[in-house]
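ok posting inputs for the adenosine-5'-diphosphate job
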Amino acid sequence: MLSVVSPALAALIGLLVGVFAGYLVAWFVLHRRAEPEEVDAHAERRRILDALRSGGAVIGDIDDILAANEQATDMGLVRGNRVAIPALLDLVREVRRTGETASVNLDQTRPGRGQRAEQRLAVRVLRLQDGSVLVIGDDRGAALRVQASARDFMANATHELKTPVGAITLLAEAVEQAADDPDAVAHFSRKIQSESSRLSQLVTQIVQLSRLQGEPVTSSDEVLVDDVVGLAIDRSRQLAEQRHVSLTRGGEEGLVVRGKREQLVTAVVNLVHNAITYSDEKARVVVTTRTVEEHGDRKVAIAITDNGIGIGPEDTQRIFERFYRVDYARSRQTGGTGLGLSIVAEIVEGHGGEVTVWSKLGSGSTFTIILPAAPDEEEEDG
Ligand code: ADP
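and the output
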C-alpha cells in the first residue's frame, strides 16, 4: 500500500497531521489555561465579597450579578440575578459608562420586618478594570436607630427623674412652712422618704440597664437553676406576705445553664415581683422549671405564672420597652419604674436566651425565660 503513495503526498499528509496535532495541543493548552483563570476570577470575587462586612455585589455588562454576598441579598441590594433597587441600577449603568465612582443614600422600607423595616443604605458604586461594576452597601439604619433609642432613653430618664426631684423640692418647702405642726411635718417627711426611695430605685435601675448594655455575658460559669429560683423566691417572700399572695415553685429539678447567677436571679425577681404586684390580694404565683427541645437544642424554661390582672394584646407588644407602663398611676403607686421588664430582656438576651409572655386581661399572665441548657459533661467530652 505504502508503495503507491508518492513521497510528496506522504510529506503533505505528514505536514497536515503535524499541523492538526499542533492545533490540538494548542487548543488544549489554551483551554486548560483559560478555564482555571475564569474559575479563579469568580472564586476570587466571591472570596473578597464574603470577607466584607458590608453588602457587596459585582455586576456584569448586561446588568447581571456576577457575584454577591449574603448581606447584599439581606439588605435588598440584589434579588436573584438582578439589582433589586431601580435607582441603584441606574447608577450602576452610569458608573459603567463614565467610570466615575459614585455614592448614594437610599432610604428603603422593607415589608414584614417590624421595626427593622426602615433602612438607610449608604452605597458606593465603582467600575473595576475588567469593566464590571462593584456595589458596596452599608445599612446605616441600625446605627441611626441605636442613636435614636439612646436619645429617647435620655429624654425619658430625665423626665422620670425630674418627677421625684420636683416632688422632694416641694415637700421640703412644705416641711419648712409647717414647722409648727408636728403632724404635718411627720406626714411630709414620710412623703419625702417615699419619693427619695423612688428616686434611688430609678437611679439604680438606670445604672443597671446601662451596665447590662455595655457588657455582654462572657462568663461560662455553670449556674444551677434551682439556686436561681430559690434565691428569687427568698427575695420576694416579704412582698408576697405583705400582699397575702401565695408563692410556690415546682417542675423539674437539677437543671443547669451557663452565665451569671446574680443577673439571672435579678431577672426572675423582677418577674416574680411583677406577678405579685399586678395581682389582687390572695392571688397565686407559681414558678416552674422544665427542659424544652427547640430545633434539636436543649433549653431550660423558667415560667412565672400569676392569676392577676393580665395584660391586653396591644400592651403585651410594648411592655418590654423602657419606661412603658400599662397603668401609669398603678405602677407609680406600687413603686414601678417601667424598667423592670427591659432589664429582664437585657439579661436574658445577654445569656443567649429570650423572654416571652402569654397574658389575658382579667385571667393572668405567664412570663417565660428560655435559656440554652448547659451541655452535659459527656456531651462536652464528646
Ligand atoms: P414596672 O416597674 O412598671 O412594673 P415593668 O417593666 O416591670 O415596669 O413592667 C411594665 C408594665 O407591664 C407594668 O407597668 C405593668 O403594667 C405590666 N406588667 C408587667 N408584669 C405584669 C404582670 N405579671 N401582670 C400584669 N401586668 C404586668
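notes: Residues 270, 274-275, 278, 306, 308-311, 319, 324-327, 331, 336-341, 365 surround adenosine-5'-diphosphate (CB under 6 Å). The longest strand covers residues 284-294.
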